């Protein structure tokens, strides 16, 4: 009986050892995260309670906001969008028309990432081997979702900074700083958001 228990323990240890070895090899098998995986080529800067009438490219029904943004970014001709929360309808657009107030709509314009930002990301990624690929992917996802999580209200950068300064709760401050970072994509605005979080 003791012999069977020892063999069972050895088999369990061997299985655990194999599993740990496979986990250690997993990041290498996935490949290194490149700058295009961390810094998106484009992003959508959203504003809440705004419609961008006209210039419709296509309409997709029963779609969530994240999927609407992803659909726009995956469609070459899409340069703006309006997502209607009540109808769960996504309107991909060839351009942004004049905005019109519409409660429950979220609209956004595609903002392309400057080539020098992508080049800088490549240099910084090469110099930061200590940052795990899983962390890089998580940061990229956070950057892609920034405007979805914290849409603006149509204010320019100065207006969003003022909203953040006037915020009466930490949550409101984070919201306006998130909207600001989504709009400008500037390092000081990202840093201010990181401090507020």
TrEMBL record:
GO biological process, one term: proteolysis
Signal peptide limits: 1-31
GO cellular component terms, semicolon-separated: extracellular region
Stored InterPro entries: Apple, Pan_app
Keyword Isomerase: no
Entries under CDD domains matching the protein: APPLE_Factor_XI_like
Keyword match Repeat: yes
UniProt keywords, alphabetically: Disulfide bond, Repeat, Signal
A UniProt-annotated Pfam family: PAN_4
Domain Apple: 51-93
UniProt name for this protein: Apple domain-containing protein
């Amino acid at each position: 009986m003791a012999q069977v228990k020892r063999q069972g323990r050895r088999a369990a240890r061997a299985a655990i050892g194999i599993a740990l070895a496979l986990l250690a090899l997993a990041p290498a098998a996935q490949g290194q995260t490149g700058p295009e995986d961390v810094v998106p080529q484009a992003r959508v800067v959203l504003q809440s309670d705004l419609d961008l009438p006209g210039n419709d490219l296509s309409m997709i029904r029963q779609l969530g906001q994240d999927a609407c943004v992803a659909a726009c970014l995956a469609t070459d001709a899409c340069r703006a969008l309006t997502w209607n929360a009540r109808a769960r309808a996504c309107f991909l657009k060839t351009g942004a028309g004049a905005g019109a107030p519409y409660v429950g709509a979220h609209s956004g314009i595609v903002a392309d990432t400057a080539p020098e930002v992508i080049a800088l990301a490549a240099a910084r990624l090469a110099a930061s081997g200590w940052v795990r690929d899983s962390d890089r992917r998580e940061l990229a996802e956070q950057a892609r979702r920034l405007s979805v999580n914290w849409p603006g209200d149509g204010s320019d950068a100065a207006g969003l900074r003022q909203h953040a300064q006037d915020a009466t709760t930490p949550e409101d401050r984070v919201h306006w700083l998130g909207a600001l970072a989504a709009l400008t994509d500037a390092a000081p605005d990202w840093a201010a958001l990181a401090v507020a979080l």
